[in-house]
Design a protein that fits this description.
The protein has about 725 residues and is an alpha+beta fold. Helix content is about 35%, strand content about 30%. A hairpin with a 5-residue loop joins strand 28 and strand 29. Helix 7 packs parallel to helix 10, helix 13 crosses helix 14 and helix 18 packs antiparallel against helix 19.
């Protein structure tokens, strides 16, 4: 009997073998084969059915085979089908990305009810734009079942209008839902999938509050983005234990004692997580710049609960007057924060700079510091421009000799950056003013004075030195890279500049100097803001990489993020590597320990940054819409920031942006000169990128974070 069972086991065909047999058979003969015929042709033993079914299921889930009407099977490749993932939805369409990275536009009627992160099969359909366009023909696996939206009343009942597909009303299973009312911003879970978005059924899991309040909408954005807001119990216990232990003197062993140096921090007045401090002195050769960073890696050890939590989060997320920290406040605002008059453990970078700002040498060391004062940007700026009152002067008396020095050195570093032809791109940053009720009552341009530039330049030096160290030691590392713009983007930039009659240098290969020249040639003209925006949009996105590919925008061969380990995991990761370099571990050991870690950390940091930036932007849009709600019907002077076939966007000086839809423009026939202008055929009236226009605030949607403008006809 045992012999018989052994023989049967030996004869049984494995799942992998069945997968090969199925693919081989489907590659020959007819494209479509009935499933029962396929099973008959491929199965060898009755006992093999279980493995056959598993093999077929895996192939279908992988998008290699598909089942069509009449239970007929085909290879996806022979049918022209492609596996893809739904990346985003809009009101009337969606997008899917195939495994080779190609993005497909999917019309709403061709979505088959697919949701973001669903794995689907798509097939090509005729494109109206020339870009890839497809239709979903099958859903291979479901992504997330949760979504956010607004409760609306329609046709005698309450429905969920999802944020990701706001044209559709989804049926609510009230018996399974928590209490809700019309106008609520909610988190929902899909409990039934239909063939169309409107056929999906959901239950309401939680209520954020009114959709008319930006705070409620921001909370829903954070949740929908997958940003973790609660720390695990284990990580909190670690943080409490570290905090309660305090900074122990035995930790000063084998550290350089820098408490005698006039070291100080400079941050915004609201900052509580102070992770960088500076020192500077004049030398015979030029300058000695010290950048002293909180030694977070001393407390957050590799593979600990805190480390795993930090890597999952990747970065702190800042929006309005709130922050979702990467580390618990016991660390971020406590023992790791470089608070004044308190001993703190740091990782210091000392850069010896020549009179012209050239980096002559650098060194890193474990250190202990005691910050002399918590500097504030606005106060330092007043000292520098001579408007500081006696109270401010008294506060900074302990570093009064250092402030002129940091100003001088920053000027030298700024000039050096110009000499290497780094493009000086400008971005409008805004500050949201939130009242005691959590409502945005004002949006003001964020002032960027000289002290902000000083800290920026000093941090750039330290970041460059960290990357230089890694390259010199030939160790795995997490670099901050910024590649040259893709050729199609530089071609588009040239096309736009030509249409705007803006001169630009001709080139075979686009280099930073070309971008710098384009900006400089238009500086002081009415086209400058438009040109600045176009150059900015032509740039590639900076990201993290284990490869030292350089930084195009800064014109540096070596660059990393070293200076913010409290709020960025990339910085914490390289602190850990630098610590082991300083401990004397050799290249072989470091390579073995950190090769995989560097790759994983770079990927995690990049994805976390993308998630955080997107969430922060969407939250900010909701607060800006909330602010503009108070100004409906008012007239504003704005500049056209982008032009599309359906209208143009106009931006106010405080960075609020709104859409002027083509249907609201004076009657006529408009030609679209992609992507710089809309021109009325007969009158010649043109709305061009960079033009100043007078607009009225016509409508806002706080939940969607949108503002609608119309042309102020009284100003025409």
């Amino acid at each position: 009997m045992a012999e018989k069972n052994k023989k049967n086991s030996k004869d049984k065909v494995t799942v992998e073998s069945y997968k090969n047999k199925i693919v081989t058979y489907l590659n020959t003969g007819k494209r479509l084969i009935p499933l029962n015929e396929l099973e008959t042709k491929c199965r060898t033993k009755k006992s093999g059915r279980e493995n056959f079914v598993q093999a077929f299921t895996e192939l279908r889930d992988e998008g290699i085979v598909t089942v069509r009407k009449g239970m007929k099977v085909a290879l996806c490749s022979r049918m022209g089908f492609k596996a893809a993932e739904i990346t985003r939805l809009s009101r009337t369409f969606g997008f899917a990305v195939t495994e080779d990275g190609t993005e497909y536009f999917i019309p709403g009627k061709c979505m088959m009810g697919a949701m973001p992160r669903d794995r689907v099969l798509i097939t090509d359909i005729p494109s109206r734009s020339g870009e890839p366009e497809g239709e979903v023909i099958d859903i291979l696996s479901f992504g997330s079942s949760t979504l956010t939206g607004v409760i609306e009343y329609a046709e005698g009942a309450l429905y969920l209008v999802p944020d990701i597909a706001s044209r559709n009303h989804m049926i609510i299973s009230k018996g399974e839902s928590v209490p809700f009312v019309e106008g609520d911003k909610v988190l929902a879970e899909i409990v039934y999938r239909g063939r169309r978005h409107a056929e999906h059924k959901v239950k309401i899991v939680s209520v954020f509050g009114s959709a008319e309040l930006a705070a409620s909408c921001a909370e829903s954005i954070i949740t929908a983005s997958g940003i973790i807001t609660e720390f695990s119990d284990e990580s909190l216990r670690e943080a409490y234990r570290i905090s309660e232990g305090g900074v122990q003197e035995y930790c000063f062993n084998n550290r350089e004692d820098l408490r005698h140096l006039p070291i100080f921090t400079i941050d915004s007045s609201e900052s509580k997580d102070l992770d960088d401090a500076i020192s500077v002195e004049k030398t015979e050769k030029g300058w000695l710049l010290g950048v002293h960073i909180a030694d977070v890696s001393h407390y957050v050890r590799g593979n600990s609960a805190l480390d795993k939590e930090a890597m999952r989060r990747g970065t702190s997320v800042y929006y309005a007057d709130k922050v979702v920290p990467m580390l618990p406040k016991e660390l971020s605002n406590g023992i790791c924060s470089l608070n004044p008059d308190e001993d703190r453990l740091t990782l210091s970078a000392f850069m010896e700079l020549g009179e012209d700002g050239e980096m002559i040498s650098y060194r890193f060391c474990k250190s202990v510091i005691r910050s002399r004062v918590k500097g504030v940007y606005s106060e330092i700026n007043k000292i520098l421009d001579g408007s500081a009152d006696d109270g401010i002067k008294a506060k900074y008396v302990c570093v009064e000799k250092e402030i002129p020095l940091i100003n001088q050195l920053a000027d030298i570093l700024i000039e050096r950056k110009k000499q290497r032809h780094a493009p000086e791109l400008e971005t409008i940053e805004s500050k949201l003013v939130i009242n005691e009720n959590g409502v945005c009552c004002d949006v003001v341009p964020r002032e960027r004075g000289k002290s902000e530039r000083i800290i920026e330049e000093f941090m750039l030096c330290a970041n460059e030195a960290a990357a230089k160290l890694a390259r010199e030691k030939k160790v795995p590392f997490v670099y901050r890279i910024h590649e040259a713009p893709p050729e199609e983007k530089t071609a588009s930039l040239c096309e736009m500049l030509t249409k705007l009659n803006v001169e630009y240098p001709h080139f075979k290969e686009f280099k930073p100097a070309h971008a710098a020249a384009i900006l400089e040639n238009s500086r002081g003209t009415d086209k400058y803001e438009a040109v600045n925006m176009m150059v900015l949009r032509s740039m590639a996105k900076a990201k993290y990489s284990e490869e030292p590919l350089g930084h195009f925008g800064l014109v540096l061969e070596d660059y990393a993020h070293f200076t913010s380990p409290i709020r960025r995991y990339s910085d914490l990761a390289i602190h850990r590597i630098i610590t082991d370099i300083l401990a004397g571990y050799d290249e072989k050991w470091l390579s073995k320990r950190y090769s995989g870690f560097a790759v994983n950390a770079a990927e995690a940091a990049t994805s976390a940054e993308i998630r955080a930036v997107s969430a922060e932007r969407d939250c900010e849009d909701c607060y800006k819409a909330e602010y503009m709600k108070q100004h409906i019907g008012e007239s504003f002077t704005a500049k056209i920031s982008s032009v599309a076939e359906f209208g143009f966007y106009a931006q106010l000086p405080n960075s609020v942006e709104g859409l002027v839809h083509i249907r609201t423009l004076p009657e006529g026939e408009y030609d679209y000169s992609e992507p710089v202008a809309l021109t009325e055929k007969f009158s010649g009236v043109s709305y061009e990128l960079g033009d100043t226009v007078q607009v009225l605030c016509a409508a806002v949607n706080v939940s969607e974070g949108t503002v609608d403008f119309v042309i102020d006809e009284e100003e025409l």
